[in-house]
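note to self — DONT lose this again. spent like an hour looking for the file last time. sequence + predicted structure for the chain T wanted, 303 res
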Amino acid sequence: VRVHLYATFFRSTVPLFSSQEQTTSPKHFNVHVLRITEVSHVPSPVPEPTIVSDPRSLRSDLVKEVSSLVGSTASADTFVNFLVSTTYSRPGGTPLCFLPLNVAGVADPETAESIINMVRHLMPKVKVLTLTPDLLCKKRFAPKKNYESDDLMQGELQLSNGTVLIIDETQLPTGSFPVSGLVEENLKVLEDLIVDHRMQYDYGFYKIPMDVDYNVLILSKKESRFFKTPFRIPLGTSGSLPSFGNIEHKRQFIQQSRMSVSSISLSDEVSKKIQDSFVNMCSTLDAKTDKAALLNEMLIMSR
């Protein structure tokens, strides 16, 4: 992403006074943005497409290669959908095509590292959040206003849109652990990201919700201990990091697919099949099931 920034710069040199001595404020610049134009960049297509660069062929190969690590074609298909997913609209506050994914059955940190390396191999921006009691207690995840310094302190999860956020639960101790410090606040930040795809900027007296567009991936030994995601896949017999062929084409395919999500429209035939399947499913579902959420999940996967 390239950003053209038009702004004024101001460096404060006004002396600060204390009861004992006079000091000068640290030399830092405040940026007051007047106008911002964001330009998204995707590499141009290869001039002479080949059979290998055909989108369907690329996707089929990618699913096959990912399946060698996650253990099944069905899980790999969902994983590729996760990489392609991006939130492009929020009608009524609901993020469209947001696909938070929980990979369950990640037995140890070594297996988690294999999945992380695979994602890093395919995606341009990856943030790994390895959950430990110490991190949850001491590291602030969301931005918070410091009124003494008049600064908005950066949070650990203040990331640019398009980042894959990998939440690794595999290093948490089994059973319960002491809860103190920022644990409750940080878990609420993660819950807001996974459920509403938003982050609350904390200004002390009030909070401002900011929409984000992260791809949230949770790695856990069983089902996530803290978060219930609508999309979850089991990790089968995990292999080594796949050897991706034609990797540049596949990276390009993922990014171009992400940009095309908003332009996809479901045909009448596909929409009718979804409706019919949904009606049939509803007759067998428990009365407590959130049917609206289920329909939204089906539409996301269809896109």
